[in-house]
Amino acid sequence: MKVHVDEAKCCGAGQCVLIAPEVFDQRDEDGIVVLLTPEPAEDQRSDVREAAAVCPAAAITLDEDPS
Amino acid sequence: MSRHDPDIRLPLTGDGPLDPPAEWQRLRERCPMATAELPSGDKATYLTRYDDVKSLLSDARFSRPTATDNAARIAPDGAGGPAANGDTSLAIPDRGEPHQRWRRQVGKYLTAKRMTALRPGMVSIAESLVEDMVEHGQPADLKAAVGFPFPVYVICDLLGVPAEDRDRFSYWSDAFLNVSRYTTDETRAAHTELNQYMATLIAAKHTEPGEDLLSTLIAESAEEGEGLSDDQLLHTGVALLVAGHETTANMIGKMVSMLLADRTRWERLLADPSLVRTAVDEALRFDANLGFGLRRYLGEDVDLDGRILPGGTTVICSMPAANRDERVFADPDEMDLGRSPNPHLTFGAGPHSCLGQTLARSELQVVLDVLLRKLPTLHLAVPAQELQRVEGLLVGGLRTVPVGW
């Protein structure tokens, strides 16, 4: 799985950090998303899917099966 | 029905105090862009489908109407308080790039990391409020004892308001928003006193800064030279209080009521407290008393899934109706405490989605954790059907939440 984040769309709600803190963080300067782990491990993927699904700005997209 | 007759009149209410209005289902099915008459007599378009509500709220072109927009009013002039029709002159940019900048300046103080750091403080506030409630004996009103003071105490800590001023803050915030309980003069006086207090507080933070939000914003303004003016700081503080007090206070009461109305829900959480995180979001989704919904004034035509809403239309987005859309949520009328993912729209969506949502979630999780731990035998002291709704226009809730333990 490959994770992409769109900083321009991000509204800093922080949902992703609450759900998957090993994969997402927020910048100290403005609360915008920081991608810590672009290729999450197996056991992190369901949290990442949840984070992407609930992102209020639809700023997280997933490539489930990158070639 | 002629095209000038409204399809519905708002507000809609459900049968029981926690029930959704039956009309939502019909509207989502047959009339997803209904013409609604508001209490002011003005007309608006009422959206109830998830995709429509989400797409309109996410549309960066539109925001909360201002006085110059000529949008439909919710309440008649003079009723509903200054917050009802969006004519408060808050010195905060509300759209475009300046809005985005303000959001990021304040938002960085409301990140998930910061909220995690604030959590121990929140836990001790919640514990001491629950202990005070228990000391006063049962039955107690959970809303007055815990729900109402908790978020205002947390916001006071955030802003750096000393503990001894918390209850004055509570009163001002209540009088500012709760127009049915206070006279216009009381509301106006509260507004003035709160503004004066904030101005004094900001002056004090200039000379003796602390670790709080206001001091941090002041320090950054001094460094960067293009931060927030004192006037903007004042309105930012007031905005946090207005946005974060009554809403969370009511949500605490409604969440606990929904969990206790069917006690198997409470028992499921006792058996597995790790469900608290998803349970809080499910309570946010399931809440049928969220209030009116969010208003948007369309400055231009909008294409919603092939249907055109003409420019000049005022739209009411019903998040609670969208949150029960069967196209998105399986068994939407079941409260499933483990539901995941739960992309509900209670905090809105897109560039205006609730800036304080991580704060609100943390507060709700803390309160629920503390109640489960300290009062596992908690129960409603009246039948759930006898709970009474608040007659407010803006923020929906229950008047009291009588509990025993």
UniProtKB/TrEMBL annotation, chain A:
<keyword id="KW-0249">Electron transport</keyword>
<dbReference type="InterPro" id="IPR051269">
    <property type="entry name" value="Fe-S_cluster_ET"/>
</dbReference>
<keyword id="KW-0813">Transport</keyword>
<dbReference type="GO" id="GO:0009055">
    <property type="term" value="F:electron transfer activity"/>
</dbReference>
<feature type="domain" description="4Fe-4S ferredoxin-type">
    <location>
        <begin position="1"/>
        <end position="29"/>
    </location>
</feature>
<dbReference type="GO" id="GO:0005506">
    <property type="term" value="F:iron ion binding"/>
</dbReference>
<dbReference type="InterPro" id="IPR017896">
    <property type="entry name" value="4Fe4S_Fe-S-bd"/>
</dbReference>
<protein>
    <recommendedName>
        <fullName>Ferredoxin</fullName>
    </recommendedName>
</protein>
<keyword id="KW-0411">Iron-sulfur</keyword>
<keyword id="KW-0408">Iron</keyword>
<keyword id="KW-0003">3Fe-4S</keyword>
<dbReference type="Pfam" id="PF13370">
    <property type="entry name" value="Fer4_13"/>
</dbReference>
<keyword id="KW-0479">Metal-binding</keyword>
<comment type="function">
    <text>Ferredoxins are iron-sulfur proteins that transfer electrons in a wide variety of metabolic reactions.</text>
</comment>
<dbReference type="InterPro" id="IPR001080">
    <property type="entry name" value="3Fe4S_ferredoxin"/>
</dbReference>
<dbReference type="GO" id="GO:0051538">
    <property type="term" value="F:3 iron, 4 sulfur cluster binding"/>
</dbReference>
Automatic annotation (TrEMBL), chain B:
<keyword id="KW-0408">Iron</keyword>
<dbReference type="InterPro" id="IPR036396">
    <property type="entry name" value="Cyt_P450_sf"/>
</dbReference>
<keyword id="KW-0503">Monooxygenase</keyword>
<dbReference type="InterPro" id="IPR017972">
    <property type="entry name" value="Cyt_P450_CS"/>
</dbReference>
<keyword id="KW-0560">Oxidoreductase</keyword>
<dbReference type="GO" id="GO:0004497">
    <property type="term" value="F:monooxygenase activity"/>
</dbReference>
<dbReference type="Pfam" id="PF00067">
    <property type="entry name" value="p450"/>
</dbReference>
<dbReference type="InterPro" id="IPR001128">
    <property type="entry name" value="Cyt_P450"/>
</dbReference>
<dbReference type="GO" id="GO:0020037">
    <property type="term" value="F:heme binding"/>
</dbReference>
<keyword id="KW-0479">Metal-binding</keyword>
<feature type="region of interest" description="Disordered">
    <location>
        <begin position="65"/>
        <end position="95"/>
    </location>
</feature>
<dbReference type="GO" id="GO:0005506">
    <property type="term" value="F:iron ion binding"/>
</dbReference>
<keyword id="KW-0349">Heme</keyword>
<dbReference type="InterPro" id="IPR002397">
    <property type="entry name" value="Cyt_P450_B"/>
</dbReference>
<protein>
    <submittedName>
        <fullName>Cytochrome P450</fullName>
    </submittedName>
</protein>
<dbReference type="GO" id="GO:0016705">
    <property type="term" value="F:oxidoreductase activity, acting on paired donors, with incorporation or reduction of molecular oxygen"/>
</dbReference>
<comment type="similarity">
    <text>Belongs to the cytochrome P450 family.</text>
</comment>
<feature type="region of interest" description="Disordered">
    <location>
        <begin position="1"/>
        <end position="22"/>
    </location>
</feature>
